[in-house]
Design goal:
Blueprint lengths: L1 H9 L3 E6 L7 H10 L12 E8 L6 H13 L3 E2 L5 E3 L14 H22 L2 H6 L1
Parallel strand pairs: 1-2, 2-3, 2-4
Amino acid sequence: MVRFKSEVEASDALLFVTPEYSRSIPAVLKNAIEWGSRPWGKTSWPNKPAAVTGTSPGAIGAAVVQQHLKSVLGAQGLHLLGGEAYITFKPDLVDADNNVADESVRGFLKAFIDNFSAFASRFAATPASRAAA
């Protein structure tokens, strides 16, 4: 837990990539969020820029879990990137070398990461945000 908390605290931004488990957050992810918020009064989360994405084989591509996770993370004081990044997982989405094979999905993900990078850099450039973290 000490290593996890120190790595969260040392990070400039956090990208949460999650599958959807019964329309909710996987238990291990919820547990990690709880670890980061403990002990009381020493949370590791506030003022960190963060983004959420994920995938599922369902037509709405993990939309429900992402909304649930954003609610949980918002309550922890993270600054969340707006917008959605829902990916419907299909057998041909990832090739044998673990690369995104679909050019349109790859372009979408690149734009999402570029947007997240710009969002996170706004917090790093602000002296008040560093002091508050």
